Structures are given as structure tokens and as C-alpha cells.
Amino acid sequence: MSLQYPLLFPRGEDGYRLGIKHRSVGRLLQHDYNEIYGDEDSSGDNGISERSRLKWVEKHQSIIRSDLYKNIVDSVSHGDISAADVGKRVVLPSSFTSGYRYMRQNFQDSLALCREYGHPDLFITFTCNPKWVEIQRAVADAGCGDASVRPDLVAPVFKMKLDAMMSDLMKKHAFGRAIAAVYTIEFQKRGLPHAHIVLWLADGDKLLSSDEIDLVISAEIPDKEVDPIGYEVVAQLMMHGLCGEANPSCPCMFNGKCMKYYPRPYASNTTMDSDGYALYRRRDLGRTVECNNIHLDNRHVVPYNRGLLVKYQAHINVERCNRSQSIKYLFKYIGKGPDKATVVIEPSNGSSQGLDVTAPAAQQRLFFHLEDEQKVRFRDDESLPQVLGRYKPDATMFIQWYRWDNAGKFWARRRQNDNVVGRMVYAHPASGQRFYMRLLLNLVAGATTFEAIRTVDGIIYPTYREACFHRGLLESDNEWHVALDDASSYATAPQLRELFVTMLLFCEVSNPSSLWDRHWSDLADDVEYNQRKLLHLPTLMLSDLDKQTLALEAINNLLNQHGKSLADFPGLPEIDKGTTYKFSNQLVLEEMMYDCQALKIDATERIGRLNSMQHLIFEKVVQSVNSCSGGFYFVYGHGGTRKTFLWSTIICKLRSEGHIVLAVATSGIASLLIEGGRTAHSRFRIPIDINESSTCEIRKNTHLAELICKASLVIWDEAPMTHRFIFEAVDRTFRNVREIVNPNAKDLPFGGLTVVLGGDFRQVLPVVLKEGREGIVAASISKSYLWQECKVFTLVENMRVQRNIPPITLDGKVMDFRDWILDIGNGVQQTYDLAGNGDSSCIKIPKELQVSYSGDPIKAIVNEIYGGREERHSSIDYLRERAILTPLNEYVDKINREVLSRLPDTPAVYKSSDSICKGSSGNAFDDILYPPEYLNSLKFSGVPNHELQLKVGTPIMILRNLNPKKGLCNGTRLIVTRSYKFLLEALIITGNKIGEKTYIPRICMTPADKTLPFTLKRKQFPIGGCYAMTINKSQGQTMKHVGLFLPDPAFSHGQIYVAISRVTSPTGLRILCVNEDDKYAGYTKNVVYHEIFNDIVPIDPTHT
Predict the structure, then answer these.
(1) Quick check: 833 pLDDT over 50?
(2) Interatomic CA distance for residues 831 and 843, integer angstroms
(3) Taking every annotated instance into account, which residue ranges of this chain make up the domain Helitron helicase-like (predicted)?
(4) Which candidate in 639, 910, 967, 1091 could, as Cys together with 991 as Cys, close a disulfide (CB 3.0–4.6 Å)?
């Protein structure tokens, strides 16, 4: 009884016992008896049924056994006859609904849908409404006052309503054509059931734009006069509250804040970030709903769909989702299973687990095996020859593929449902060859033998693990050995050392000493020659120890550029300081190695080419540096005002006089445009996870701290892209470390160091996940406490010498192309409200820039930009000067595949090795819950996909700052010249190292996505194809031919401006806007946050 009804007998007492009270226990009315015994009947009947099933398994575990077919054959060959001496007992199977294996199977089936169809499109929560007419009528007939005490009445009605809704979603296409759905019903012991539903929509019906979302999801109160029915149902069922200060005891409150983030901020339009997270439209329309004398407005509305809401009269929360987090939430009880209690009742045999069956719950899946290792089940009283006689592998497979047609008297191949999503059953990583075989079966198509599965490039490997390794599916230091062996055939010793450093920094080499011991002679191949040339001793012979020491010194210098040293990699030899001289601070040394005389000549020539405003800024900055007075400046100017030229002039002047200037930029591409430039993150060791109180990883009395103390100036380009928290972290760090050279540093911006920021607020602003317009604007540097100390200079004169730039025509008006671009950036171009919803942010594209199409728009834009002769596709100049830009990575991948498919030769296919970082989720079952093929299907911004297809001559883009000094930054474009199994050789085609050859290994990367319940580690080449790239990725790049592909409107401030300003002439710009209505062809949305310009108040040049 105590296991059956734990709420009634929490201390485990008997149902009836001696001494139980018979008097003074109160009286129950008849309907109370009905409620109590109704619950007892429901839960009792179900509990008895489940107990019966479990009892049978428990009773027969001793006689039902299983083993591998091969093991039984081996036993018979050794003379064993009895089945009781082999195998193991059968455990609770996945067919048991409440079991852990059942939960795990359903979870993995859902992940298989994610792998096949991508992330779900909609997440719907459907809650039972006790006020439904059907429930109220049944409750009244039963003489009950509260529906929650009659689950036998509530649960059937809810299930019928849920079935009707699923029919609306899947068959009647309430949100468009649905291709798959998964739902779970959650029962609460003292509440009402509710269902969580995830829905996959077919291509063409996905909610990709803000307008499409607004058509099906609303977060606003309907107009009471226009839609009184909608108003009433939203007011009754979809208002969140009352919480906050008005009701601090509300269940959603924690530490004084609503855990559901209500009230949400007003939003004039639905917006999406680069990851597709939607912030719904919540306009301040003055509509309210009264709740306990408090007026709730649109900020308190839970997103809903009006059609479903009015039809089902229940709380139905509809959310657009873009990550598999919804699947994880849907099966959040996967490791917990059903409610259960563990009670020690058999001390001699341990403990037993009993299901806690609640009344509402009561109402209510390609196998594989190693060769000859299929599972065989048998009874322990059978003989082993008899068991083998029942399992004949060659005979049993035929009927699985064919059926006997009795009418035609022939064997017919079984027909398959094309709409089935296949899933390979799970194999634990510790299961050895079976796990590796499973990895291969997900890749090898059409294998008919076990040998075919183990075949790679025509070689049959003896084990599945070896086959996996040679396909690049496993992590092993042997990969780095192979990569260095391949590179040594073509690469010079300096290139090999750079590759070796890249491996140490990014590849998680487990045994660096082994890598050094095996390859040191290749890494030191040039040191003897260099020493002969340096010392003018042509017959000089160095010992192996001398060669190793000099090579290690060169490697250590490369590591110093990344803030590391040999000491950070245990196992690598120490440098013999008696062989070579080591400077005390390599960072300071590098900044003092410039040719001052050459810089002085260059500075003089550049100063004479400055315009009046540039010269004013130049004088102001140089004066601030020479007087050591410090200062904080911002230079604001659009493309063409030659900010980079101004930076170079200031840098040449100050470096020629012995000053240290630290030139940094937000993006790697921008940093390459300045001599000695670095990304701000790498130079100042800015943490990845940043908040309002963060500081940089720079401690006093370190080499980097000494460099900052000796620096005279910091120039920081592309500042508007950077979150203000980053500038504030650098400010706090500088104030701390510069106290050594300036006692007042803690009271001065950036510790009294002169800092010059530059950029264009018309361009893309900081990326802030899950934040709308207000959050993005608030993250700007102009909203920082530092801004009040900043002096703003504005450059407006376009200094680029351009001739014969044709004008453009818009609505019959002839315009200068550069003026049109600035109007787009400033948001002053004429706009239109095409949807008629008050969103007048659409602009018209000039006719001469539009790309018309019929059929596939991707083919149309590719034909426009890459439609030339095929031989041009191998021309470096041809590929460097053109690209297709689009807002989302999804379309980047599609365009890259389209262009690659048009080129001859078969592509080399590289697949990543994906795993979950141990301990990242705190769930011991991660290896079970998330199989490798699901991890392979995940795609992230800034991380390469699981599968890369490359051909020699393919343009690629670096996705990590591998070696900024050598031009390998995030955004650098290259051409593949050779491809090896674990190594790529490529030629740099952009930046300041054009024409240099480099080698790229696979590295370990972790996405910054925080929505996953675990941390993914992906080992893959840090590259992506770049026939196309995202608009954000193109910032800082200049090209002659750009195709802007807009299948969906731009979603963030400055994207259209950034895209069209990559070219300097309209003859090189083509724009394709995909609009369902032909009359709107040539229109697109231009998102501009006008309030970002309010804080930009330039100083008066006459009063400086």
C-alpha cells in the first residue's frame, strides 16, 4: 500500500492496522467518496497492470537468456551443450512504456527527425482548460465541484482535444505543410495535463521572415472593437501575470524577478538575430486587460495563434524555435523516467524500485551487429545445437526483404514507405568495434559485406576503428603526425614551424613531446644554413642539440605572438639558454623593430596628403601622445573617407619617433589593413564570455602588462561592432596595470593612455543574442560610461579618386551612387509599407541593379556573378574580386554547393570528428542521448559544418584567427592548391600577405552557442567555402563584383548598407530580392536604428 499510494502513506504504514482510529475522524460526503475511490480505481488498476508486467519479467529473468550468435557457435565447438551456461539474463526492454530504455528510444527518434529535417520550426504548449463545456457538463453530472479531482473525466477530454489539434496541424496544415511532429503529455499530480508539441514545416512554409511570423504568431491584445472574440479569449487565457512588484509571491518570481522575463519590452516590429531567435512584435497600442485592478498591456501577452486559440478555448503558447533545445525540453525526463520511489524492503537483496502512478497518467523505433554477433535469445533449458538450429543467418534475412505473393505464386520485394526516417540503433563508445561500425554505417552507402564497410580509398582495413581513423572520424595524435609528414614534402621549415605552432594552439595535441621528437629534424631543417649565413661561416656544423635549441627558440617566438610559450606545453624541451640569447620581453621587442628612418620618410609624404579635418585629428592625437596627457577620441566616417590612411599616417609618425603604437581592430580583416595590426581580442586577451564587470586576462608584472605600460597610443578600428562591455573591460584592465607608470591611472579613462576609436555607426552593430532593438542599441559604445569622456571627430569628405562612375536612377530621379549608399545607411531613403501593418521600412532597389529571375533564384544569382567561362573559375584575380552576399548561413551553404557543382572533377570530402566535452552538461547519459550522427547534423555560425566538400582551386575563408601576423585571420580568403587527408595547402588572396602559401590542419573548435544542453567539440578544418558569405562576414572587404541575394529581408541594423558599400561602382552590384508578389519585385526591408545616431555629437573644429 505504501508503494501504491505514497501520498496517503508517506511513512510506509499499513492501510489497515491495529489501533487505527474509528471515531472522531470526520465525515465524508458521497461525492468525496466518489473522488477518492475514483482516483484509487484509476491509479490502482494501472498500477496492478504495470506491476503484473514487471513481475513476469522478474520471475522469468532466471530462465530467459541472450548471447551473441558467435559465442554460441564457439561454445558448441568446445563441446558445451547446456544453454544455462552461456549468455546473460534479459533486462527490461524498450517496449516497456515506463522504462528508461523506452524514454531513451523516443528521445533518439526525435533527434533522428532533427537530423533529417533540421531543427523544429514551432514549439507549442497546449494546456487543458477545466472550463471546457465537455468537462463542466461531466463534472456537474457527477456531482463534483472541481474538475482537478476527477482525472477520469479530464484526461479523456484533453486527449480528444489534443488529437483534434494534431489533425489540424498535420492534416489541415494550420501553420502550413507539416512534415513531422512530436509531442509529450505531462501529467501533474495536483494539476491539469498539458502537451508540449514540436512541429517541422516543409520548405516553402517555414517562418523565415518577420512578416511570415506575424501572420501566425501574435503577442498583442486584439482590438476589442474589431475582434471582440479574440480580445476575450486572449484576456482570459494568454495574459502572463500578475507578477513583479504587484505580486511578488507569484510562482514565476525568483529573487524578485520574473523567470519568464515578463513584462517583455515593447517592440515595433518582430525581429530575428543571426541565429533565428525571434523577438515578437509588441507595439504600444494602448490596449489593456484588467487583472486585479492592474492594467496589463502587450508586454504581458504570451505568444499565441488566434485561430487555434479561438477554436480550442485553451492556453496555447506558440513559439518559433530554431534550436534542438526544444527537443531536450520535450523529453526533459529522459534520465528520470516516470515518477518513482526507492524503498529498501529486501535487505538481503538490495532495494526495489516502485512506480508512483498518478491518476491522470493512468487515464491516459535499423539494427546492426558485427559479423556473427547478432543477438540470440533462448531458454536456459534448451540445448545449444537446438538454439543454433533456430537461428540460420543466411535463411532468415531473405524474408525480411521479400514476401510471398500467394496469388501470383512468386516472391515480391517488400515495398518501403518513402516517408520513413531511419535511425541507427545506439552503440556506446565503450562498446569497441560495434561503436566504430555504427559510425561507418552512417557514412558508407550500399555496403553489401562487412569488408565493404571497412574499405577506405580501396584499402580494406582489419578493424572498424582503423577505417574510422582513415576517414577522419576519430581524435588521435597520429593525425598530426600524418599532417606534418605530408607538409614536409612541400613546405619550408618556417612554414612547418608555423604549422607546428598552430597544432599546439588549436588542435589539443595530447603528447606534444612525441610530435617534437618525431619531426624536429624537419622543423630545424634551415637553422644550420641560417647560422652559416648569419656568421659568415660556410663550413659551420651544428650539433643536433644546437639545431633543436635554435628551432625551439623560433617556435617559442611564434608562441609569444599568441601570448604563449613553450612552458605552456608540458613535455616540450626547455631552451638551452647557453646556445641562443633570449630577449626579456619579445612583445616589446617586436614593437621596437620598425625601421624608423623609412617610417619618417613615409610619414612626411602621408602628412602632405591629409585633408583639413584629417590633419586636425592627426595634430590632436600626436599632441596628446607627446604631452602624455591621455585622451579618448572617436573618428566617425563612412567608407571612402580614408580612416585607414589616417591611422597609417599617425602610426608612421609616432613609430618613427620611437613610440609604441598598438593597432587593433574588431575583425581580423580590418586588422590586416594596418601595419602591425592585431584583433583586439588576441592583443588584450579579452574573455569570450563578457559581462558588465569583466576584466581582461592581463596581470601586473607580465610581458603584456609591460607592453601596455610602455605603449603611447591605441588605435581601435571598427569600434561600433564591439559590445560596450568589451571596452569597459579593457578600461578597467588598463587602469589596473598602468598604475605602475601613472599613479592616477585608476581615475583616468584607459589608465591615462591615449585611445582612438574609429568606425561607422551605419554599419552592423554589436551582436547580442536574444535581444531586440533596444538591447542592441544599449550594447553600443555610445551607451557606455566612457562615452562622456570621448571627443568625436567626423570625416565626411570622400577621398577615393574615382572616375566615370555611372549614376543610378530611382523613380525617374538620377542619383549619385555614393549618395544613394549613404541615404540607405542613414535611413533617409524613401520607404514603403508593403504589408500594410505600419512597418514602413521597405525601400526600392534601382532597376539597373535588380536581377530578374524565373525558377530557382539561387541559380539566377550564381549565373549573374559566376556565369562566365569555366576556365575563369581557376583564376585568382577572378575569384578575389567577387562574392555573393546573403544574410543567413543557410543560403551561404546552398550557394556554395551550387557553384561547386558546376566545376569539373570530384570534390574531396572531409568529415569532422564530433564529440561532447566531458562534464559540460553534468549529465552522465550524454553519450547515449546524443548519438554521433545527431552531433554531425548540428550547424553553427562561425564553426564549419560536419561535411566539407573542396576542389583544388576552390576559394575558402578562414573562420579562426590562426596566425594574424602571417595574415591568417578570421575572414581571410584563400585558394586551395593541394589537399591531403589531414592537411590543406592554400594560397592567400586577400589582406597584406597576398600570394603567400600556408598550411591548414584540422583544429578543435567549440561553438559559442549557449542554447545547447552540452558543449560540442568539433575537429575540422577551420574554413568554409566563400563563393558566398554572410553580409556580416563581408564587412571590411572590398570587391569589384557583388551579388546581394535576399531570399528573406535583412533582419538587423546596417546590413543592406554594409552589403552595397562593398563595391565602389554600381556596375559591380547586382541585387536579387525574392518576393512572392511580383508587384513587389525590387523592394526589400532596410533596417536602421535611427536612435543610434543621437549620441554622435561631433566637436566643433574651430574650438579644438
Answers:
(1) yes
(2) 5
(3) 49-199
(4) 967
